[in-house]
Amino acid sequence: MPELPEVEALRDFLDERLRGRVVERVTPVAISVLKTYEPQPSALQGRAFTRVSRHGKFLDLETAPGEADAGATGGGDASGAGGAAGTGGTGGLHLVVHLARAGWLRWRDSVPPGPPRPGKGPLALRLSLAGPEQGGDGGGFDLTEAGTRKRLAVYCVRDPLEVPGVARLGPDPLADGFSPEVFAGLLHGERHRIKGLLRDQSVIAGVGNAYSDEILHAARLSPFKIAGELSEEEVTGLYEALRATLRDAVERSRGLAAGELKSEKKTGLRVHGRTGQPCPVCGDTVREVSFSDSSLQYCPTCQTGGKPLADRRMSRLLK
């Protein structure tokens, strides 16, 4: 699943290629991909992109106002919306994308002629750009999704805060205002395990399963610790690990093409997805706890005082 660092790299990649370019056509291919119905995606045709932003794990492709927007008003001031701060409507339209677990973006320097055919393949949506003279093949991108569980989501809205997932976002952990005091306030009194709290997008925007494992390993904390019971020293260490882990991942991804980001993410992970391999810090064996639809990885020596965490699913299988 793309998380904050990969989505930030995609934002850079797209912002460089889309600014000033004009939409020729937006073609939804999978019936499940489009989550809004008004405005229609066809309303983007003929509009120029002005910028690409990121809200947590959401990409926001913003276009300039068109003639039909002359009397339109925005969705209000978003300055207090945490991870969606500064996203108020500007009169243009926004194509907001959430890649979910198995979605991805494929850039095309040349788009095949003719509309894509709906089918059982991975293609979910295609956006074509007008050529240099607004009449030729200007390339574009495909949104694809592997597997059968279709969660890739695209929204065409006048304000990104119309997207429920954006409106509920917590603060962005790489924002200038995300201070140690802000972070400590998010954890205060929380009875949830720290692993789950780091992944909760309404608490902190952009962190998923992989980077929460990496952050907790860097902070030398058990994923099962209760967030509100962390000591002041542990909170400080976790804050520093959160920021450093995400910043390092963003820097590693910066400047890479969209097709290279997945492999870069895997090579940069120290414990996530490395069950049975030696911990790069202490050499102990990385262990796993499995859940119904996901798993976490950790190092017992670095994080749990040498004690393996209970894997209830595995325990049931061994009975």
Automatic annotation (TrEMBL):
Residues in Formamidopyrimidine-DNA glycosylase catalytic domain copies: 2-106
Cofactor(s) this protein cannot do without: Zn(2+)
Catalytic activity: Hydrolysis of DNA containing ring-opened 7-methylguanine residues, releasing 2,6-diamino-4-hydroxy-5-(N-methyl)formamidopyrimidine
Keyword Zinc-finger: yes
Compositional bias per record (Gly residues), positions renumbered to this chain: 72-85
Residue ranges of every copy of the FPG-type domain listed in the record: 270-304
Annotated family: Belongs to the FPG family.
InterPro entries reported in the protein's UniProt record: FPG_cat (IPR012319), FPG_N (IPR035937), H2TH_FPG (IPR015886), Ribosomal_uS13-like_H2TH (IPR010979), Znf_DNA_glyclase/AP_lyase (IPR000214), Znf_FPG/IleRS (IPR010663)
Organism: Streptomyces marispadix
SUPFAM superfamilies named among the record's database cross-references: Glucocorticoid receptor-like (DNA-binding domain), N-terminal domain of MutM-like DNA repair proteins, S13-like H2TH domain
Origin: domain of life: Bacteria
Region annotation Disordered: where it falls in the sequence: 65-85
Signal peptide range: none
One matching Pfam family: Fapy_DNA_glyco
SMART domains linked: Fapy_DNA_glyco, H2TH
Residues passing through the membrane, by range: none
Protein name, UniProt field: Fpg/Nei family DNA glycosylase
